[in-house]
Amino acid sequence: MQINRNYLNLQESYLFSTISRKVSEYKSKYPEKEIIRLGIGDVTLPLCEAVINAMEAAVLEMGTQQGFRGYGPEQGYDFLRLAVRDYYTSRGVTLQDNEIFISDGAKSDLGNILDIFGLDNTVLIPDPVYPVYVDTNIMAGRQIIYMNANEENSFLPMPDKEVKADIIYLCSPNNPTGAVYNKSQLKVWVDYALSHNAVILFDSAYEAFIQDKEFPRSIYEIDGAKQCAIEFCSLSKTAGFTGTRCGYTIVPNELVYENMSLNKLWFRRQTTKFNGVPYIIQRGAEAVFTEEGQKQIKENIKYYLENAKIISETLSDMRIWFVGGENSPYIWLKCPNDMTSWEFFDYLLETANVVGTPGEGFGKNGKGFFRLTSFGKREDIITAMKRISNLQF
Ligand code: PLP
């Protein structure tokens, strides 16, 4: 018996365990201090009323003879796929019903999609990055090329014509940086993918945070994208589904490589290895796309974005360089006084009792940078920013 030795090439992630250790050490020394956590990437507001009502009704339905459902379609119930289709239509993107696959969240599909690609493909991944893209490719043994996201390109790397890549990851609005590609930048990426016969894996998990019309919320707003891109989306941050689990992946019928339809391959993969998202959850997800649901989730997103604004204004007043925070729940700042990410982490913890995430946990270009998130409670954000604005750098 042989193990998959690629797993031995994974780097141990010490980021969140080191953060917890440092925070507990500090707390045991100073138990009276009130620590505010602005490092978490998880939502804090509860599910909205429309979702709860829909799920309650679905629970009751499941307890009746006529309403009971067993296995559902692997790719999702029609009612939810049509709701997703109409959501795209309202934003000017036309999708075929069979191009929409309901998932238990973007993370699973981002990892699982690799099943349909050959192992010899070269993968292009931005640095810093959401670690799932890197680790899932290391597990499969694929060769990874990193593209630098840095201060010079405002953390929005563009294609290098000299680099030949087959699978390209883009995430906009970005985790961890909060940076957002505009339409002309995405068009350059689409043209690059088309000319290199590459596929773009576009992670739009944070699309609902985009307020500015100049920014595309789906890669399919760009001409040619249906011939070269798969889009992954999630209700986790959009509607507070991090613990409820539901997302969707769009695999256009026009995606054809080596004369094979990627849509057909993904359908085959899902029907073989996935048994669908629970009916009750899909009914809750459907409610997100109703008029009432949209109104309610937009209130929550507005709350997080107002938090982000409070953070951004504090940083601007302090003349600290940052990106994100306007169309994204993430704020990515440059550590003042040339501090390293961990020095800044310790400094913030000890002087302001505020916890954030050191940028180097997301890749080498994260060194000297720091991520704050706006998912906390308003009063905590205000207190944390007051404390930070009193700091001397
Ligand atoms: N993509 C990005 C960029 C994320 O930051 C996250 C979660 O933090 C996900 C995907 C995963 O989302 P889900 O909860 O739908 O699995």
Concise summary:
The chain is α/β, with parallel strands linked by helices and about 400 residues long.
Taking pLDDT < 50 over at least 5 consecutive residues as the criterion, the unreliable ranges are none
Oligomerization category of the chains in this entry: single chain
The shape, in one word, is globular
Strand tally is 15
Helix content: 25-40%
Radius of gyration from the alpha-carbon trace, in angstroms: 21 Å
In terms of DSSP E residues, the strand content is 15-25%
- The tally of domains stands at 2
SSE pattern, N- to C-terminal: HEHHEHEHEEHEEHEEEHHHEEHEEEH
Q: Total helix count?
A: 12
Question: Might you state the CATH topology name of the largest domain?
Answer: Aspartate Aminotransferase, domain 2
Structural class label? alpha/beta
> What small-molecule ligands were found?
pyridoxal-5'-phosphate
Q: What's the CATH H-level superfamily name of the largest domain?
A: Type I PLP-dependent aspartate aminotransferase-like (Major domain)
Mean pLDDT across all amino acids: 97
CATH class label of the largest domain? Alpha Beta
Main pleated-sheet profile: 7 strands, mixed
The CATH architecture designation of the largest domain is 3-Layer(aba) Sandwich
- Side by side, the strands of the main sheet go 2-8-7-6-5-3-4
Distance between the termini: 57 Å
